[in-house]
């Protein structure tokens, strides 16, 4: 028997999820039983994001899940076994009394936060991560090299206030459910090291937080679209091998397809067009995951 005891953060790109699939595949190949000692999903139950496209599987894309999948690792194990047809003995040691639909934590009980990885530094980061992780494929900084990684969005050469204004004009509902604070930061390493970045920070730990209204994936792509409209020639996308994958832009690997990048860059595509795509995929996933839920929905 192999026991898996990992604190996941509820975002498809977080590699603990893909590692779970790899372990299940190895268990099936070698006749080993896999048990998950389940832990909370700090991002809670909400679903957000497009489904990963066929052929875009990677270490940060285990299968056709949305970015914010709303499952614990124990629940994800059930879906993996069914979806991939794995012949493996498996068991979830479930949590007692876990309710991801209730406040104030909405997925994260009142527990001390211990970083599951170096840049997963707070509950706020885990809530923002389904959106801010997209910035790893962009030239704008996600705050690595600061004390608030993956909670901020910025660059030294953007008009932050104009970008934020344009985003609010395009889709104010995509920025709802959190407090957005204009700020500046200077990374000590990684992108824009030693340079002051004009930025915004997303806050989910104040009075403006609404768990059901907060859509981090939509918020970050909206800000990227606003950068494209305010600065039409801005070089938004990075181009380098990403997470053992080459031949594709990092943002496409992260997002599990080119859809986000194409929408940001295509002025003929509206917010309503993108919303329709996301809502359709999210509805499909809500039905697919339902049989594997172990806790309240």
List keywords for this structure.
three-stranded parallel beta sheet, 297 residues, 10% strand, 6 strands, three-stranded antiparallel beta sheet, globular, alpha/beta, 8 helices
Task: Give a quick precis of the structure.
By secondary structure, the protein is an alpha/beta fold. The chain contains 8 helices and 6 strands.
Plain-language structure description:
With 297 residues, the chain is α/β, with parallel strands linked by helices. The chain has 8 helices and 6 strands, in the order βαβαβαβαββαααα. It has a 3-stranded parallel beta sheet with strand order 1-2-3, with helices on one face. Helix 1 (15-30) links the parallel strand 1 and strand 2 (34-37). Helix 3 crosses helix 5. It is globular. It starts with a strand and ends in an 8-residue tail after the last helix. The model has no long low-confidence stretch (mean pLDDT 97).
């Amino acid at each position: 028997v192999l026991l898996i005891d990992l604190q996941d953060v509820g975002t498809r790109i977080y590699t603990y999820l893909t590692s779970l699939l790899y372990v299940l595949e190895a268990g099936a190949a070698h006749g080993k039983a896999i048990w998950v000692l389940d832990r909370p999903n700090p991002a809670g139950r909400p679903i957000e994001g497009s489904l990963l496209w066929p052929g875009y599987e990677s270490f940060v894309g285990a299968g056709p899940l949305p970015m914010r999948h709303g499952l614990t690792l124990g629940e994800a194990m059930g879906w993996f076994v069914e979806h991939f047809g794995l012949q493996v003995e498996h068991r979830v040691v479930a949590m007692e009394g876990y309710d991801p639909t209730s406040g104030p934590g909405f997925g994260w009980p009142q527990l001390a936060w211990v970083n599951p990885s170096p840049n997963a530094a707070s509950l706020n980061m885990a809530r923002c991560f389904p959106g801010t992780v997209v910035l790893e494929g962009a030239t704008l900084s996600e705050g690595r090299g600061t004390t608030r990684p993956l909670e901020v969005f910025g660059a030294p050469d953007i008009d932050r206030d104009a970008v934020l204004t344009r985003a609010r004009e395009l889709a104010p509902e995509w920025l709802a459910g959190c407090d957005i604070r204009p700020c500046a930061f200077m990374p000590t390493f990684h992108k824009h090291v030693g340079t002051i970045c004009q930025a915004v920070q997303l806050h989910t730990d104040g009075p403006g937080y609404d768990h059901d209204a907060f859509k981090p994936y939509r918020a970050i792509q909206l800000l990227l679209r606003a950068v494209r409209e305010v600065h039409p020639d801005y070089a938004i996308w990075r181009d380098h091998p990403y997470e053992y994958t080459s031949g594709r832009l990092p943002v496409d690997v992260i997002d599990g397809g080119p859809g986000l990048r194409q929408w940001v860059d295509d002025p003929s595509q509206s917010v309503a067009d993108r919303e329709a795509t996301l809502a359709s995929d999210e509805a499909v996933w809500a039905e697919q995951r339902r049989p594997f839920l172990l806790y309240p929905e």
